[in-house]
Amino acid sequence: MSDQQVAAAVADHELDAHEHHHESHPRHTADEYDLGNRNPTEDIFVAERPWGEFQQFVSNEQVTVKIITVQPGHRLSLQRHDHRGEMWQVLDVPIDVTVGERTWSAQPGETVWVPRNSIHRMGNSGERAGRLLEVGFGHFDEADIERLEDDYTR
């Protein structure tokens, strides 16, 4: 890469970082973030760039981020959490989702909010493995999982 190309790439990155910084405006208090008492899907925004776009889910917050893969014909336990809410974004195949009393097939690109203390589950009735991006808001601890039903008797 030439010096000019490197300089242009650095300038593009600095411009992106500068624009990104000014577009991000939290709408919630620190306590709402820490307690998992907010719906972060309200804060998602898409920023257009000459090279495409990016979708921002959180900015400068303490969160736990996972990618969960659910194999065909399998599902996670029906569960709830006292100390965190979760935001899921379906990545590649439809995923069967239950949140509270509602059950549906969440499509790729769909974002789902699971409020703190709500009963929830994800599963895959399709023929290919499916992935979700999970962002946990609030205190994260695997011991905070209360399993109400579990196919694997945990």
Word description of this protein:
With 154 residues, the protein is an alpha+beta fold. The chain has helices at residues 3-23, 30-35, and strands spanning 45-49, 52-56, 63-70, 74-75, 78-81, 84-90, 95-99, 102-106, 111-114, 120-124, 130-138, 145-149. The protein has one domain (3-149): Jelly Rolls, CATH 2.60.120. Strands 3-11-6-9 form a 4-stranded antiparallel β-sheet. Helix content is 18%, strand content 42%. It contains 2 helices and 12 strands; from the N terminus they run ααββββββββββββ. 16% of the residues are buried.
Any chance you could write out the topology, listing elements then pairs?
Layout: H1 3-23, H2 30-35, E1 45-49, E2 52-56, E3 63-70, E4 74-75, E5 78-81, E6 84-90, E7 95-99, E8 102-106, E9 111-114, E10 120-124, E11 130-138, E12 145-149
Antiparallel strand pairs: 1-2, 3-11, 4-10, 5-12, 6-9, 6-11, 7-8, 7-10
- As a percent range, the share of helical residues equals 10-25%
Shape descriptor reads globular
Low-confidence stretches: 10-25
Structural class of the helix and strand makeup?
Answer: alpha+beta
Descriptors:
Jelly Rolls; 42% strand; alpha+beta; four-stranded antiparallel beta sheet; 18% helix
Short description:
This protein is α+β, with helices and mostly antiparallel strands and 154 residues long.
